[in-house]
Amino acid sequence: PDDTFLWVCFFCNNQYRIKAAGSQVSPQELKSTFEHSLEQVGQMVIMMDDFFSPIYITRAWCIFETYICLSKGLPMTMIVPPGAQADFARKLDNGAGLANVQKKFYAIDSKHARATKPEDAQLIKDLIEQSVGFEAVN
Q: CA-to-CA distance for 15 and 119, rounded, in angstroms?
């Protein structure tokens, strides 16, 4: 369609570029920018690497951004590479697929999530604690 847009947070809300420019942007400002942009786009696509050991659910910003999407009631679509889809289908046929995926997602732990820089992880965790808390995000 002519009105399809793709907002990639890495390009639009890039924490590294902001820091390199010497800007003093707080985690709250990054959160606000993400919330506003996500509301404008109206939905979120999560690009996962795998269903059974997804790196996505171990990353602090990824977990927090997913929480924001859910808290805003916006639609979310999860996509994976074709190989991961085929692996999921095989395991689903064996009866173990869905239970294993549910186990991984129920084990999301925002308190121990990582970021490239430990100080970034701490900023995100502080933001979570100051807003809704880890349990709500998990």
A: 12
Closest among 75, 67, 23 to 44, alpha carbons compared: 75
- Angle at CA 120, nearest 5°, toward 46 and 61? 15
Residue 76: beta bridge partners?
44
Q: Are 118 and 70 in contact (CB under 8 A)?
A: no
| Phi, psi of 80, rounded to the nearest 5 degrees | -140, 160
Q: Which residues pair with 44 in a beta bridge?
A: 76
Pull the structure tokens for residue 93: 């046929």
Question: What is the residue type of 52?
Answer: F
> What is the CB neighbour count within 10 angstroms for residue 30?
21
Q: Give the pLDDT confidence of 35-48 residue by residue, as tens digits.
A: 888 898 888 999 88
Percent of the chain with pLDDT over 90: 13
Question: What pLDDT was estimated at residue 75?
Answer: 94
First to last CA, the chain: 35
93-46-32 Cα angle (round to 5): 150
Token look-up 């916006």 returns: 74
